[in-house]
Amino acid sequence: MENKKRGNFTGSVGFVLAAAGSAVGLGNIWRFPYLAAKNGGGLFLLCYLVLVFTFGFALLTSEIAIGRKTQCGPLNAYKALHPKAAWIGVLACAVPTIILPYYCVIGGWVLKYLLVFITGNGVAAAQDDFFGDFIGQKFSPILFMMVFLLSCSAVAFFGVEKGIEKSSRFLMPALFVLVIVVAVFSLTIKITGEDGQVRTGLQGLRIYLVPDFTGLTPKKLFTVIMEATSQLFYSISVAMGIMITYGSYMRREVDMPKAVNRIEFFDTLVAILAGMMIIPAVYAFSDISGMKAGPGLIFISLPKIFMQMKSIGTVVAILFFLLVTFAAQTSAVSVMEAIIASLCDRFRFKRKLACIIVTVYALVFGAIVCFGYNIFYFEMPLPNGALGQILDLFDYISNNVLMPIVAIATCILIGWVLKCSVVIDEAKINAQKFGRERLYIVMTKYVVPLILVVLFVQSFIRF
């Protein structure tokens, strides 16, 4: 039975845009291009595409089906499926609870850079110490984090149809257009370096798209596959309660397999376009050595490149940080919604009260994350070999520990305890065709759990 008291997306388009908006986040913008450049360009893309339509398909289908079948957020959904699976729901709800504060902090950083370029201060943003000086301040990062958080809260406050769906119908097409515009411009770049060599955006595109098998060994191929899997795992918003929540808002008459196909397509398309937008430009101005992981790419490398573009650079920078803002907000709203839905389901809170509680929580812990770069600064060695502050610690716990556990447990629950027919029957509820049914069974029962176990172990032991 469809729960009439819960909000619902008006149809397939609303659901797909909201779900794709969740999947298209900061990871697609800064992590995908870096990993592609690092791992042989086209080789990484090839591995990623194969994984999208196998690994990603199985996880995405499972979570959306769980949500629609139970009509619950993650905290209650697993318990509704099986009484002894309630602990999975607790962990699935813990993931967005940990992620939301630091994601809003990063969203605040994006807003800061957008404002800097809008006000014509891009030269300052291109300085080596600008980013470090900014996040090291006590109050300015909190202010920008608060503005970003309140913009997300406003969307969630108005509910599923009037808030999430309505904003997604505007932000996603706008984001898509901006990505294409910046990507096309990136391909037209032609620069003569200090060494006299001419580098173009099209040459960078070739590096990005054409597989490089030079020095390829089984160990290197394994590394590429694991990094592509890691990127996909975080890119499609699974194991954090989001797709379960959005699935619970999907109407029964919507063709679920087709909706999953469209989410896969849009998420992959934007990720590939993000690479086309960034890698050609970075290559033209600084060779591929200019690629950095994480915030270093967006907040350090790219501002320098924008300023090297002379008069057009400021315009390109504004368009770029505007699209990153859109990507960050659609993802942050989905993270927030997973928590709100869980509070409403478990404790019967009204949406507005739950939204206020989550906003206050995110504000407090977001401030703590900001203080992690000044008042509470420390450096902690993480199991993956990195040195981390509070933000990095939160990110490691959620992404490297809890998310793999949730995903593995979900596969075991669906594949072995309840059997895959639970999801398959939900997918075919209106006599709809489930084209990859056999693939889904094999992936859910055997392949996905195995890959996730390797990925989980790799978070602690580097092969």
User: Which topology does CATH recognise?
Assistant: Amino acid/polyamine transporter I
Could you say which overall geometry the principal axes of the C-alpha atoms support?
Answer: globular
Main-sheet strand order equals 1-2
Report the average pLDDT across residues.
92
Task: Return Rg in Å.
Answer: 21 Å
Top CATH class: Mainly Alpha
Order of helices and strands: HHHHHHHHHEEHHHHHHHEEHHH
How widely separated are the two ends? 48 Å
The number of E-state strands comes to: 4
Structural class computed from helices and strand pairing: mainly alpha
Q: Main beta sheet, described?
A: 2 strands, antiparallel
Helix content: over 70%
Count of the domains = 1
**How many H/I helices?**
19
Provide a concise account of the structure shown.
The chain has 19 helices and 4 strands.
Explain this structure.
The protein is an all-alpha fold and 463 residues long. It has one domain (12-458): Up-down Bundle (Amino acid/polyamine transporter I). 75% of the residues lie in helices and 2% in strands. It has 19 helices and 4 strands. It has helices at residues 12-23, 26-38, 42-70, 74-81, 86-118, 122-125, 130-136, 140-157, 159-187, 201-209, 218-235, 242-248, 256-286, 295-308, 311-347, 351-371, 390-417, 421-427, 437-458, and strands spanning 190-192, 198-200, 380-381, 387-388. The strands form 2 sheets. It has a two-stranded antiparallel ribbon. It has a two-stranded antiparallel ribbon with strand order 3-4. A hairpin with a 5-residue loop joins β3 (380-381) and β4 (387-388). α5 packs across α17 and α8 packs across α9. The radius of gyration is 21 Å and the shape is globular.
